[in-house]
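Trying the structure run again after the queue cleared.
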Amino acid sequence: MKILTSPGRLLACALAVGALVSACSSIGQPAVGQPTPAVSPDESDAGSSDDLGLSPGRVGSGALAFPPGAASPLDAAIAADASLPADPNYLLLPFGVAETLVDGVTAAEDAMFSTDERLFVTGNDGIYELQRDPSGNLRATNLHPGEKCVFTGIVEVGSTLYATCADYTNSYLFAASLAGAPATPAFRKIYTMDGTVLANEIAADPDGRIYVAASAQGKIVRLQLSPADPFTVSRQEDWLSTPSGIFPNGLKYIDSSIYWTDSLGGSVSRAFILLDGTAGPITSFTDPGDGFFDDLYVNSNGTMVVASYFLGTLRAYGPPPLGGLVAQTPPGAFTNPADVLPALGRFGFGTGDLIVTDKGANRVVLFHLPF
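Done. Tokens:
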């Protein structure tokens, strides 16, 4: 997506947001490996993609757009759309509509679409998959409940899903194969990161190396997978000590670079991956009013959207090193957003739709942009 900053022109920048982890409890949780369903609110009358006027089958771009002629993007607002159903799952926002897709996802954290557009979400108590039931309603099924750790990041490498989980002493890497499109991917613990108190968000480069935000240690760890076995970690190394050394949280790979947020430092940084695999030059910017940066989504041109966890908003920035806040949803639009990414077409979402995990509300949200 391109970002055009001249007055009155269309502004577009793709969105995404990450992870603040709270304690998990195993009390009353189902046994490990027994999937448990969570259902979308008011299934009998929940709005469908037709209610929103979305075109089914289109691949989402994740654009945050502002209408031509708006004197100030932050002050403009859309009028109530009479075509939208009178449903409590919908909230009208400037430049968009937030619809609760499904609730009951405990502390919804990280979200990702697999290569074949299956939607997975991590939560404190497991790894969920969102699917439509025969009646068209969305359901979230916990694929791996019962672990005594908090699930955080999730990423796909090849045909394997990897998820991090932390118990605030050590952290762990879980994996499940998607080969053959299993109805219920079977996750299992494959590696322990001893002494990594909080493995937070994760990302992977084209060589299949997994980068982990080790939040409590103020560094980014890298895991090398065995070429012969995707369920074996052959090496762990400290790839980068973050410049502020405070709390790296959100993490994304794009264009031979790792981007990360520092939640307590209020900064977003980018480090190039050099040809020898080491971390190269770093560029950063800081926003004192960030409200605790969580995860982020980055466009190929470096523009980005970051989840502001405590402000309950999504904030769009120019690329490092200048950054610069260019747009945001109103403070409190979400309870505690933790991740945001472009929606994909398998579910019938529209081209401007975004998926947001609202951790504080235990829900997954569709943010629909009408322009």
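DSSP finds no helices and 26 strands in the chain. Worth checking whether this holds up in the mutant runs.
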